[in-house]
Known about the structure:
Shape: elongated
Structural class: alpha+beta
Bound molecules: zinc ion
CATH architecture of the domain at 1-77: Beta Barrel
CATH superfamily of the domain at 1-77: Nucleic acid-binding proteins
Largest sheet: 5 strands, mixed, barrel
Number of strands: 8
Order of helices and strands: EEEHEEHHHEEHHEHHH
Strand content: 15-25%
Strand order of the largest sheet: 1-2-3-5-4
Mean pLDDT: 89
Amino acid sequence: MYTDTEGIVLRQTKTIGGRRMITLLSPKYGKIGAGTSITEKGKGKTALALRPFTYGSYELFKSRDSYSINGAETKKNFYRIGEDVEKYMAAAYVLELTEKVTQENQKAQGIFNLLLDFLQTVEKRKSNFETLILAYQTNILKLTGTFPALSDCANCGKKIDDSVENILFSVKDGGIICENCSCFENNNDNSVKDALIYRIDSSIIKVLKYFSTHSIAALEKLALDEKIEKKLSSLIREYISYHLDVGDLKSEGFFREVKYGDYIRKD
Ligand SMILES: [Zn+2]
């Protein structure tokens, strides 16, 4: 069956016989792996539409369990992402994360819109890419139904005053927890570290709530305070790894290496 869809190219790999495999995120079909024999040499413009970070429209042939791409046209190429190595790595991380959290043949309009919003905003930005990554991750949690509880205890449902300066956030429970529930956890768990409990203050909660209710474009001129950014970054990384089972992401290590000059290994 012939069909077409718009999409964003997440990845391109070479396969045997000069063919390429394109991983595409489309609103209609979700994540798609599609083979193509279009080469860089043969059809210049079409080949450009098959490169990662491209937003384009794609002519597909869909057989029972595979897709192939017969034609492609670029709608927007975010070539300025390649101007800066830190910006490039931030965007590469977001593509890799997107690939991990999306499923084949499951509509992904929300994540598609979010990714397009991210690419458009990051392309124009000159620094503080991590703020946009955090906003992206926060919205991925929302769209995958794993967003943390931020008003009531994630364990017992008790209302928590989120304006106080010392709030406990439990990665495993999926959000903030009350004092009662945290005592219970610590008594039953030999190691507090294993329980993945963070002490956070109200600013972290405010940022998470703000990110989850605004588009990424709305954050164009916003950069988080460095201390909040670091704390939130480590909390979200643990949270995603626990709730979304994405495994280790190669590009995340590279991004941190470029940004901080070292490689933060996840234990
Ligand atoms: Zn509780």
